[in-house]
Structure formats: C-alpha cells, structure tokens
Write a structure and sequence with these properties.
By secondary structure, the protein is α/β, with parallel strands linked by helices. Helices cover 32% and strands 28% of the residues. The protein contains 9 helices and 18 strands.
C-alpha cells in the first residue's frame, strides 16, 4: 500500500495517477474537508489544461491581461490565465482520486513513523492508528510533518504570503502585479474574484503585516478585510532532499515552486507524474525530478535571485523593455510554466535584457 499524507493538489493528483495504475492508495487529510483552509491565490496559467480539463464550477475568472506596476512605470500585456476556486479545485482532484479507487481519510493527522508503519490520529475518535505501508509520500505542505519525522526537513526558506479578500471593483478580465522597494524580495498582487471582490496580497520574508497594510491602504484606500487567506510560500531549493528510502516528498513539502511567482500547483502536478512513473517502474525519483523539472525550477530560482537585487530604477527599466510589441508577443506565446523557451526567445528578440545579467553574479 502507498500512503499519501495531504489531500492538496499534489497529493490528490498523485493518488489519482497511482490508483489509475492499479496501486492500492490511502490518502490522509488532517482537516475535515478537502480544500480548507484556503491559502492560495488560485491563479494558474492555461498550462494546467495539459493535465486535465477544469470543470466550469472550479473557474472563478478567466483573465486576458496582466498589469505590471513598478515605482514609476506601468505596462499591460495579454495573457491567458485562470483564477480558480481553490477549495473546489482541491475537491475536484481528490474526487478524481476516489473515482479511481483511492481511499480518502478525512480528519486523519499524520503524527509519526514506526518502521514500515505510519501513525495517524483519527481526530474525530481521538484515537491514534498505526498503519502498515510500503511507501510514504509527504504532500503535507511547507511545514511537512513527514519531512520532519524522516529527517528531511532542512535547507528551505519560506516567504510569508499574506493575502486577504477585500471589496474592490476592477476590470475582471485583468490582474495586477507590483514590484519594487515597497515589495521587498517578492511582489504584490491584486486578482479579481468577482465584480466587487479581489484577492489582494504580498509575499516577503519579514514584516509582512506592515507591508500588507501599506499596500492595502494604497490600493483600496481603506483597511477593511473580508477574510484572510495567508500561508507560507516555499522557495525552491535545488539541494533539498525529496527521497529517502521508501519516503518521498512532493509539492510544497518538497519546495517544488516557481521562485519567480511562488506558484506551485503546476510544478506539483508535473512532479506527481514523475513520482508515479518512478514508483511504477522502479526509477530514482530525485534524479528523474531533476531531469524533468530541475532545470526549469532552477531557472526560476536564478531569475528570482537576480530580481531581488533590483532597485526601483532597474524595475522601471525592465518594464520599459517589456513594453514593446515584439516582447509582448513572446509573453503571450510562452507562459511562465515554460521558462526555458520563454527566456530564450526574450533574449533573442530583445538582447538588452542581458544588461541585467550583471545582477546574477
């Protein structure tokens, strides 16, 4: 049997793939409902439809434009993005796993390892169970209890992602991103959920509340928050261990996120495909993941390290270069989930982007 801890997109999609391949799978979720609490903006590129077609009820909005804002510049570009209802999306994927035969255990919290068994607490009955298992997968987020129990919890940093729903009317076909000294080490975002509600957020390493309050006031002119949806955003670490004997990590537990944006849904779905193949065919997960996803995530990581050295003037200049038709055409053709051809074509069309390479060293 394969035990997967965490019924988020990474764990549920892996459970679906394994069960479809005839494996006996148990999926454990510590909360009493899949998809709760929500701790994600829920925006993804159209690349998600390479994995499966989203049901309409999962889609909150389809976005065709991004507005990028720096200290003294502002540009617009055409995109093809989807804003999802994250709770419904998570339940969709978990339901797919169950339809293929995976068993879902809600209110079951992983509490430890014991040889070839896992210990889970049935929180409704207040009882700890010991379950024999052949393989264990930690898909339980940035604070992975599986990683900690297996001695694999080291070498990762996390952004503090502070997001809230607020009342604000904006163009519901577009979303906004903000860069510069007011958003140190990461960026801010404003994503429409409905005609009068947006998901407003920032990511940073320190002083998140202070930065968020300043952004909230500057963007909305008020301080009212409908609800909070905050959480940690892991920073990809190419040296992080993701496999140890019969224990594997996936998704946020493995820091499998795009360091440029913090997006982890599509990288985790791709990692699930890799891990399923490795389990089914006896391959080395660490090597296969690096081969199939490592170069892309490493590129995101290096771009992020470069951006973190930018001044406000550098961001203004970057946006000026991006605000050209030849560059906008590239941005429309290649999304951020295909970073290697995206960067290669950007440099080919606009060599002046290479001027920023001085920050990479």
């Amino acid at each position: 049997m394969i035990s997967i801890i965490g019924a988020g997109p990474a764990g549920s999609y892996l459970a679906y793939l394994l069960a479809r391949n005839g494996k006996e799978v148990a999926l454990f979720e510590e909360h009493n409902t899949v998809g709760s609490p929500v701790q994600c903006t829920g925006i993804v590129t159209h690349s998600i439809e390479k994995f499966f077609r989203l049901k309409q009820e999962v889609i909150a909005k389809r976005l065709s434009k991004v507005i990028v804002v720096s200290k003294s510049n502002r540009i617009e570009a055409n995109v093809d993005e989807i804003v999802m209802w994250r709770d419904l999306f998570d339940r969709l994927v978990a339901g797919m796993a169950q339809d293929e035969g995976a068993k879902l255990f809600l209110s079951h919290k992983f509490v430890g390892l014991n040889g070839n068994s896992i210990k889970v607490k049935d929180q409704k009955r207040n009882k700890v169970k010991e379950i024999k298992t052949d393989l264990i997968v930690g898909a339980d987020g940035p604070y992975s209890a599986v990683a900690k129990a297996a001695g694999m919890d080291s070498g990762s940093r996390n952004y503090i992602g502070m997001q809230a729903k607020v009342r604000l009317k904006m163009d519901t076909s577009s979303f906004e991103t903000y860069f510069g000294s007011d958003f140190p080490d990461f960026f801010g975002w404003c994503v429409p959920e409905s005609e009068d509600t947006v998901r407003l957020g920032i990511g940073c390493f320190e002083n998140a509340q202070e930065h968020f309050n300043r952004f909230l006031k500057s963007r909305t002119g008020k301080k009212e928050v409908l609800c909070w949806e905050s959480g940690l955003i892991p920073v990809y670490n190419p040296k992080k261990a993701i496999q140890k004997n019969n224990i594997y990590l996936i998704g946020d537990a493995a820091a499998q996120t795009k360091a440029t944006t913090g997006g982890g849904i599509i990288p985790s779905l791709k990692a699930a495909q890799t891990l399923c193949d490795c389990i089914a065919n006896g391959k080395d997960y660490s090597k296969e993941f690096k081969r199939k996803s490592g170069r892309e995530l490493l590129l995101h990581f290096r771009i992020r390290n470069t951006l973190n050295k930018f001044s406000d003037t550098d961001y203004d200049r970057l946006l000026s270069l991006m605000d050209q038709e030849k560059v906008r055409n590239i941005l429309k053709k290649y999304d951020r989930d295909t970073p290697i051809p995206l960067v290669a074509n950007l440099l080919l069309k606009e060599p002046r982007f290479l001027l920023f390479s001085k920050f990479a060293f």
